[in-house]
Design goal:
By secondary structure, the protein is mostly helical. 75% of the residues lie in helices and 0% in strands. The model has no long low-confidence stretch (mean pLDDT 87).
Length: 201
């Protein structure tokens, strides 16, 4: 179980999931500006909030559905080595990982609305990720890293069945990491919504 926590989630899901979120998010609006179609996009007879949602949710699905597909396939593979991963904890861990990826996607979408060049979006989000990884690797300030929310100390107990579903969402009496991930996702999405409302062609 500990090996799966490291390889499936701490390593693979974090790396590939964040890469997918940044890949999808950088071009959502910055590419429109580069192609000079942003003005046409805003001129459509739909609200800007609806426009943001229409571009955001397909990317969120594309970034998160593979997390569940790949991790669920690990159940079959685990049975080949007599490990037999439990379904419920695996689904809970996948749900948490998907929330973290959506948070990064919302962050990248916000940056895509603020920047006029797609490469600048990737640079800003990439720099933030590198700084956060540096903070995570420094023992004294590790609790201040976003990656503390998705490290082995979280996924290990979760996959072992030592963290119940309600504890994922209880930041007072439980770990509550999933609550903070969802709060982060809503915060960055709200900032993106505010940015598109104020955006000029």
């Amino acid at each position: 179980v500990n090996y799966c926590a490291v390889m499936l989630f701490f390593r693979s899901t974090n790396l590939v999931g964040i890469a997918a979120a940044v890949l999808f998010g950088t071009g959502l609006f910055a590419r429109e500006r580069e192609a000079q179609t942003f003005e046409f996009l805003l001129a459509k007879p739909v609200s800007r909030g609806r426009l943001l949602w229409a571009k955001f949710w397909p990317c969120a699905l594309c970034a998160t559905l593979p997390i569940f597909a790949v991790n669920l396939s690990a159940i079959w593979w685990s049975r080949q080595i007599a490990l037999d991963l439990p379904l419920a904890p695996l689904l809970l861990a996948s749900l948490h990982a998907a929330g973290f990826v959506v948070m990064f996607l919302a962050l990248t979408t916000w940056a895509s609305l603020l920047c006029r060049v797609q490469a600048h979006v990737a640079a800003w989000v990439g720099a933030l990720a590198i700084v956060q990884i540096g903070v995570y690797l420094t023992q004294r300030i590790r609790p201040y890293s976003l990656f503390r929310l998705v490290d082995f100390d979280w996924y290990g107990p979760l996959l072992s069945g030592n963290v119940r579903a309600w504890q994922m969402f209880d930041p007072i009496d439980g770990f509550g990491y999933t609550t903070w991930v969802l709060v982060g996702a809503l915060l960055f999405y709200g900032l993106a919504w505010r940015a598109i409302r104020r955006a000029e062609p």
